[in-house]
Amino acid sequence: MNEVKGIISKSKGEPVTVEKVLIPDPGPGEVLVEVKACGVCHTDLHYREGAISNDFPFFLGHEAAGVVFSTGLGVENVVPGDFVILAWRSPCGTCRSCSRGRPWYCFESRNATQKMTLADGTPLSPALGIGAFAELTLVDAGQAIKVNSDADPAAAGLIGCGIMAGLGAAINTGNISRGDSVAVIGCGGVGNAAIAGAKLAGAHTIIAVDIDDRKLKWARDFGATHTVNSIGQDPVDEIRKLTNGNGVDVAIEAVGNPLTYEQAFYCRDLAGIVVLVGVPSPDMKIELPLLDVFGRGGSLKSSWYGDCLPTRDFPVYIDLYLQGKLPLEKFVSETISLHEVEESFQKMQRGEVLRSVVVL
Ligand SMILES: NC(=O)c1ccc[n+]([C@@H]2O[C@H](COP(=O)([O-])OP(=O)(O)OC[C@H]3O[C@@H](n4cnc5c(N)ncnc54)[C@H](O)[C@@H]3O)[C@@H](O)[C@H]2O)c1
Ligand SMILES: [Zn+2]
Ligand SMILES: [Zn+2]
């Protein structure tokens, strides 16, 4: 058993606290990872707001890179000392989706079987099956993805969630290709990663929409060709003007809100694709004329984790970053200590950062 300090969300809406956490040694198929860096994602805040589930206490942190400390029986994909990014998808290999050759939709993704607990034995719910705002964490071996150790852990860890979600929303789910026009609504870490992904995929026009000019300035750095501040103007009209009245081929919603979803729905050209990568809260609803859903054609997709296959995608994006083709380091707005996670939520809400990254 190992004792570390971890960031815990004890009850809905309350500030997170630093608590003693007990982490078991790895059992069969498990890996104990020494966390080097972990980004603060909006999903961590969703957990602490009770917007994901009510399974408090949550052990937060899930955008992490680190080094394998020890492995349990039967683990073959990594050995102690390997530099890994933690993935919240570890395909089971046997569910209906995996059996059909679509492991990126795995319905039975694996996590460590042993529980991490508070000092009094209360079992923790690790955010997205990880829990990495701590010096050590326990994961299923399939969640530890070995990548090139030349990468800076603070940048590399971001591939473990939000940045992969954005890149994959553009490249895997949106299937963006050369010459496409794209709109990205919401340019936080996820939206800007979608912009970087659209650029990598060869999009011709990339329109960034946000309500914060700072975000739009960053969006330009990641490859947006046009920006629209949607306060005081209708982004759908603006997007149409920028695309000869047509609308875009692919519209990516990276906020998680019915209003912005509707904007994404209507700013598409006929037969265009809408990708929802923002995570809505349980109370949100959307109402659309069914005739518009039918008549506009195309497809309405959601993108869980950018439809990524971590073993396939993580090493590739880390190599693109090391080759200077993907500026992962630009997503790291600041590095912070474990004690500053709560404060970083406020900075995120004020729009001051793309990613605060805890460095351990
Ligand atoms: N699908 C997935 O697998 C996945 C993975 C990670 C995160 N997410 C979700 O993606 C969303 C974005 O995450 P993030 O970390 O980038 O958050 P963030 O807070 O950094 O970014 C959200 C952005 O949306 C902008 N915004 C808010 N309201 C807006 C509006 N009405 N119009 C336009 N822009 C608006 C904000 O200014 C901000 O720039 C969250 O819902 C998060 O939970 C999804
Ligand atoms: Zn499966
Ligand atoms: Zn996340």
How would you describe this structure to a colleague?
The chain has 360 residues and is an alpha/beta fold. It is 26% helix and 27% strand. It folds into 2 domains: 2-160 and 327-359, Medium-chain alcohol dehydrogenases, catalytic domain (Quinone Oxidoreductase, Chain A, domain 1, Alpha-Beta Complex), CATH 3.90.180; 166-304, Rossmann fold, CATH 3.40.50. Strands 3, 5, 6, 9, 10, 17 and 18 form a 7-stranded mixed sheet that branches. A 6-stranded parallel sheet has the order 13-12-11-14-15-16, with helices on both faces. Helix 4 packs across helix 5 and helix 5 packs parallel to helix 6 (213-222). The longest helix has 13 residues, at 310-322. The two termini are 20 Å apart. The structure holds nicotinamide-adenine-dinucleotide (NAD) and zinc ion (2 copies). Residues 41-43, 46, 161-162, 165, 185-191, 209-212, 215, 230, 254-257, 259-260, 277-279, 303-305, 348, 351 line the site of nicotinamide-adenine-dinucleotide.
Write the layout of secondary structure elements.
Elements: E1 2-9, E2 17-23, E3 30-39, H1 42-48, E4 58-59, E5 63-71, E6 83-86, H2 96-99, E7 117-118, E8 125-126, E9 136-140, E10 144-146, H3 153-156, H4 162-173, E11 181-185, H5 189-200, E12 205-210, H6 213-222, E13 226-229, H7 235-242, E14 248-253, H8 258-266, E15 268-276, H9 290-295, E16 299-302, H10 310-322, E17 332-336, H11 341-349, E18 355-359
Parallel strand pairs: 4-8, 11-12, 11-14, 12-13, 14-15, 15-16, 17-18
Antiparallel strand pairs: 1-2, 1-4, 2-7, 3-5, 3-9, 3-18, 5-6, 6-10
The chain binds nicotinamide-adenine-dinucleotide (NAD) and zinc ion (2 copies).
